[in-house]
Design brief:
The chain has a 6-stranded mixed sheet. A 3-stranded antiparallel sheet has the order 7-10-11, covered by helices on one side. The longest helix is centred in the last third of the chain and has 25 residues, at 265-289. It is globular, with a radius of gyration of 21 Å. It is an alpha+beta fold. The N and C termini lie far apart (53 Å). 43% of the residues lie in helices and 18% in strands. The protein has 2 domains: 4-105, 2-Layer Sandwich (Phosphorylase Kinase, domain 1), CATH 3.30.200; 110-142 and 192-306, Transferase(Phosphotransferase), domain 1, CATH 1.10.510.
Length: 311
Amino acid sequence: MSITVDARSSDARARLASDAEVLDRVHRTLGPVDVVAEHWGAHRVSRVLHVVTRGGEQAVVKWHRDAGPHQRESDALQHYAVALGGDAPRIVLSDPSLRLVTLSRLLGEPAAGTAHERDPDIHMRAGDLVRRLHDAEPPRRHARFGAMIAAEFERWSRAADELWGDGLDGRDERAERLAAERHVARQHVAAALDVGELDHVPAHRRLTPRHWIIDPGGHVRFIDFAHLEFEPRIVDLLWLEYGPWRDEPWLRAAFLHGYGRTPTERDELVLRAVAATRGLELLVRGESRGHAAERALGRSMLDRLLGATLF
């Protein structure tokens, strides 16, 4: 199958296309298909179908409600993930009007929830794969990271003030504690303001075992490139550092061995600034959406970053 890019302009409405619309478009490229599995993305803003053509070829059909994730995924698969060869999906169809991509199906199952999730050899192979992704294009070097992460932290801090209050009147003990926590987290972000120029590389940005496909021979491949953006290299360690590596540092060592590069103190400073921002974001989004899992992850990240369980 060769890639087909639909040149029609993207629909400005924030609406997730129906299964019928999507399958009609897929049929025009692949011919008749049978749907063998389906699932929703987080918050039901994306949807995925696993399909099989009449010739027995498997494919993944994925579409988004919003244009941004579709554009990132389509661009990533066409320009950066190609550096991974067969270790990333191959894009078959991209249709901006439906915010749709159709991809080759990778052999294997996600590492999350299996023994592979805590297998040092798997983490070492994942590290090698991340290095290949980061090397897909020469780094873009600039000094904007510090100001950008600080602005983002303050945006989420203002949202937190609206949710819980700023704690300044002393009447709400919980609001006061949360505000104090944000003050400490802000110091990690402020430390990044003077970090200077950093190399920015194509970063997956959702690098967790849930997005690692492991075949029966233990080969590692990556999926889900909808969040790929140019970021400092260390950003791709975030969800591992605050996930499977939290209590098993040997997994981190194995990954870095595969990656072939040891983070510097400057890298760690950047990672702490990102963790402070993402932790606060998850806490605020989880609270405002009533999403307990997001709230718990944000709470866990901030507790670890700040070195104490406050609640």
